[in-house]
Amino acid sequence: RAEEAQAANAAGRAVRLEGELRLSRQELRAEQVKAEAAARHEAHSKAEDAQAQLRAEVRAEARAQRAEERLGAEERRSAELQDRVRDLEAQLQQSRDVALDRVEMRLQAEESRTGCLAEKVDK
Fold first, then answer.
1. 82-108 burial string, b = 16+ CB within 10 Å, else e?
2. Predicted structure pTM score
3. CA-wise closest residue to 50 among 92, 58, 21
């Protein structure tokens, strides 16, 4: 009788332990599923952050490229304007030289005429 009681006791304990083990396994599986979901969520969040960062970098690079292109265009325009200024200065100097030559020729002609008139008056 004592052996039967011990056997029944042991069987009851085995059933209880088996139930606890099953419950622990279920809790462990639930924790694993929860941890996996959290890890997936974190990985997805990090991937989205990385994509957003990459898009921001691409936009910044595109802005920098456009700024470089504008700068190059402005530098070319500046060089063209400097060339145009030099051309205009050269044309202006040439016009001044021509005008000065004409004034000198008129002055010489006037001096020559005045000199001829003075000689006629002196005679």
1. eeeeeeeeeeeeeeeeeeeeeeeeeee
2. 0.50
3. 58
- What are the tens digits of pLDDT across the range 3-34? 989 999 999 999 999 999 999 999 999 999 99
Angstrom distance (rounded) from CA 88 to CA 94 = 10
Tokens of 31: 């924790």
CA R_g for the chain: 52
User: Integer distance in angstroms from the first to the last C-alpha of the chain?
Assistant: 179
Of the candidates 44, 25, 45, the one whose C-alpha atom is nearest the C-alpha of residue 33 is 25
- CA-nearest of 120, 74, 14, 83 to 91 is 83
Q: How far is CA 34 from CA 38, 41, 45, 96, in A?
A: 6, 10, 16, 91
Structure tokens at 88: 């205009």
Integer Cα distance of 6 and 15 in angstroms? 14
